[in-house]
TrEMBL record:
This is SigE family RNA polymerase sigma factor. NCBIfam families: sigma70-ECF. The keyword rRNA-binding does not apply. It comes from the Bacteria. GO terms for biological process: DNA-templated transcription initiation. Keywords: DNA-binding, Sigma factor, Transcription, Transcription regulation. Residues 20-81 form the RNA polymerase sigma-70 region domain. InterPro entries: RNA_pol_sigma-70-like, RNA_pol_sigma-70_dom, RNA_pol_sigma70_r2, RNA_pol_sigma70_r4_t2, RNA_pol_sigma_r2, RNA_pol_sigma_r3/r4-like, WH-like_DNA-bd_sf. The keyword DNA-binding applies. Pfam families: Sigma70_r2 (PF04542), Sigma70_r4_2 (PF08281). Belongs to the sigma-70 factor family. ECF subfamily. It comes from Actinospica durhamensis. Residues 112-164 form the RNA polymerase sigma factor 70 region 4 type domain.
C-alpha cells in the first residue's frame, strides 16, 4: 500500500496544475496539440524524478515550469517541428489569461493579435516573454529557469518587446521593460 502513496501525491499535485501547465505550453508553442505533447513530456519527466524532488525541491511549480520550458526549447532545436505546421481552430478560448494571480480578459480579436505576435518571436525570446509576463517571474527567476545570466534575460526581453511593438503597431502600447 505504501507503493501507491507517491502516485497519489503526484496525482494530487498534477490535478491542480494541468490547466496552468497546458496554457503555458500553448503560449510557448501556439498549438494546442503540441502544448498537450509538451505538457505530457513535462509531466512524465517530473514523474520520473518525483520520489527525489517532492520533498527536496522547494518550488515544485518552478521546477515543473523549468522542465516544460527546457522541453520546448529542445523541441525547437530539432528539425521535425519545422516540417509540421498546423493552422486550425483551437479547442479552447484563450481570451482569459491568469498572470501573477490577476486575471486579464481580452476580446477575441486582441487575444488573436497577441498570440499571432508571439509567433514573430524567436523561441528563446518567446520563452522569456511567457516567463516574465505570463508567469510573472522576475529577471533573476527567469534567468534561473532558462539557465542563463540575468543580462541575457534583459536583452532577450528588450528584443522581444521591440519585435512585439513592431508587429502590433501603435494600437498596442507596450511599455519599456
Amino acid at each position: 500500500m505504501a507503493r501507491h502513496e507517491p502516485d497519489a501525491d503526484f496525482t494530487a499535485y498534477m490535478s491542480g496544475r494541468m490547466l496552468w501547465l497546458r496554457r503555458v505550453a500553448f503560449l510557448l508553442c501556439r498549438d494546442w496539440d503540441r502544448a498537450d505533447d509538451l505538457a505530457q513530456t513535462a509531466i512524465t519527466r517530473l514523474y520520473m524524478r518525483w520520489p527525489k524532488v517532492r520533498d527536496s525541491v522547494e518550488n515544485l511549480d518552478g521546477y515543473l515550469r523549468t522542465i516544460l520550458v527546457n522541453a520546448y526549447l529542445t523541441e525547437q532545436r530539432s528539425p521535425w517541428w519545422k516540417r509540421i505546421s498546423l493552422h486550425g481552430e483551437h479547442d479552447e478560448d484563450a481570451s482569459q489569461h491568469q498572470a501573477g494571480g490577476l486575471a486579464f480578459e481580452f476580446d477575441a480579436d486582441t487575444s488573436l493579435d497577441l498570440r499571432a505576435a508571439l509567433t514573430a518571436l524567436a523561441p528563446r525570446q518567446r520563452a522569456v516573454i511567457v516567463l516574465r509576463y505570463y508567469c510573472d517571474l522576475s529577471v533573476e527567476q527567469t534567468a534561473q529557469e532558462l539557465g542563463c545570466m540575468p543580462s541575457t534575460v534583459k536583452s532577450q526581453t528588450a528584443r522581444a518587446l521591440a519585435t512585439l511593438r513592431r508587429v502590433l503597431g501603435s494600437e498596442f502600447p507596450i511599455a519599456a521593460p
